[in-house]
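Kindly review this protein for my students:
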Amino acid sequence: MNDSSSAIKSALHAERLIALRAAMAAAGVDGYLIPHADEHQHEYLPPYAERLAWLTGFTGSSGMAVVLRNRAAFFTDGRYTLQAATQVDGELYVHKHLVDEPPTAWLADNASGMTVAYDPRLFTPAQVSRFEDATRRAHTTFKPLGENLIDRIWTDQPARPAAPVEIYPEEYAGRCSAEKRKVVAKWLEKEGFDAFLVSATDSVCWLFNIRGSDVEFSPLVIAYGLVKSDGSAALFVDPAKLSDDLARHLGKGVDIVPYDALPDALAKLKGKISTVAYDRDTGSRWLADNIAAAGLDAKPAPDPITPIKAAKGHVELDGVRAAHVRDGAALTKFLAWFAREAPKGNLNEITAAEKLEDFRRFDNLYRGGSFPTICGAGGNGAIVHYRAQPESAAKIAPNMLVLIDSGGQYLDATTDVTRTVAVGSPTPEQRRRFTLVLKGHIALGSARFIKGTTGSQLDALARHALWQEGLDYDHGTGHGVGTYLGVHEGPQRISKVGNTVALEPGMLISNEPGYYKTGEYGIRIENLVVVKPADQVPGAEKPLYEFETVTLAPIDV
C-alpha cells in the first residue's frame, strides 16, 4: 500500500470512529465494544457482520475494538500482531495483546465509573460475565443495546446472506438426521432438560444434514436449531432458502420456523416444556435473555453435539482419507509447478495462491477453499495469518522462504495443510530452524499416548526441539477440523492452554508447529491427523492411542 492510499484509509477510519462516538453520545453511553463476531460466533464472518473490519480496517479473524469517548484500543492475539500493526491506525487506537493485555484489564484501568454498551447478540454470557467481574472494582456498568451502533452508522452495510440450503447426502454424513436427533434426545433425558437450543451453525448443519454458503470458506447455514427430549426439532431459518426437497429431507419431526421468529417461538413453548439448555460459551447473551423472557428456565450446558461431531464415524473417516489423497495430489502438482516457476521471478503471493486453487478445482467434489490461502513470501511468512492483498502482494524471488498454508472444502472432507518451500538456497539458520520445526512435527505425529490424554499434555512434544535452542511460536499446535464444515472446530485442541477434553478415536486434528522471525521469514509444517487405537503392548494396563497422518504431500526445504 502506498502512502497516499494509506492516508486515505486512515482518514476514512477516523471519520467512522467520529461517527461511532456520535452514536454513543446519542445512546447515552461512554463506551462501546466491537468484537470480531456475529450472532453465531463464526470465525469467518458474513459481509454484513464485518463490523470490526469496517470500523478499523483489520481483516483478521480474531480481534476487538474498545471505543471510549476520548480514547480507543484495539486487541488481537499473537497470530495477528504484525498484521494489526499495518492495518489498524496507531494514531486512532492503542494496540494491545488480546491475551497478555485483555480488554477487561484495559477497561478496568480506563473506564472507571463509565457505562460501556455492547450488542448482546455478539457476546456470550460467559464473555459478558468476564467483563463484569474484571471491572467490578472500577464500577464500570455494561449495558446491552437493542440496536447495534455500527449498524446505525454503516449506511451501505450488506444484507444478510440468502443462499439456498443444500441437502448433505447420507453417503457422506454417515447417518441420517433422525438418528442424530435421537442421540441428542437421549442426552437431554439423561441431563434432565426438556430441550436444547443449538446456536453454533456447524452443530445445526451437522444435526440436520444440511449445508449452505452463508459464510465464506465454510459451508454453513445461518440458522438456529431446537431439539426436544422426544426427538422432535425445529429449524429456525429463512424459509426462502428452502426447497420442497429439503423440507421432505427434514421430515415430519422437524418444524421450519422463520429465523427472526425465534423469540416468539420460545414464548409459545411456555406451558409445554420448562427447561431449555443452551451453550453458555457459544450461544449469545441475547439467546439466554430470550429464553428467560419466554418464562422458561434457561440452563447453561455444553453443546452436546460438539463432542459427537468431533469423533468422526467410519463413513466420515473414509471420506477424510479419500479427500486427502485427491487434495495431496493437487498440492503435489502445485509444488512441482512452483519449483519450476518460482526461480524465474515472475510470481507473486497472489498468483501462486491462485495457481494452487486451480489445481484443486479439477476435483469434482471440490467446493472451494476452507480458509483464505496464506502465501507469505520472505518476511510476510512471519505473519501467522497473513493474507496477501492485490496492491501489496510481495514478489516471490530467489533465496527466500515461502510459507503456503491452504485447504479445501470437499463434499467428503475439509482439508488444511501447510508447507514451507525454499526458493533458491536457504541460509544455515533457516535450515536449522526448519529442522527443529520438523523434529517437533514428527515427535507429535508419532506419539503414542494413553486413553484420557489431552492435547495440552502433548503440546510440549511439538515445541521441545525449539525450546532446547530458546525458540518457540505464539499459536496453538493443533485444532480440530470438521467434515465439510469448519476448518477449525472443537472441543479438542493441542496447545499450551489447559484443555480438559481428552483425545478420542475419530477426532481429526492438525499438527502444525512453526517458527517465525519477524521481518525475515516464517516456517510452519502442518498435516492433519486422526486419533486411532494403537496396537497394545504386552503388559499395558491402559488403552493406547496414536495418530494416523492423513495429509499426503512432500515436506522439503
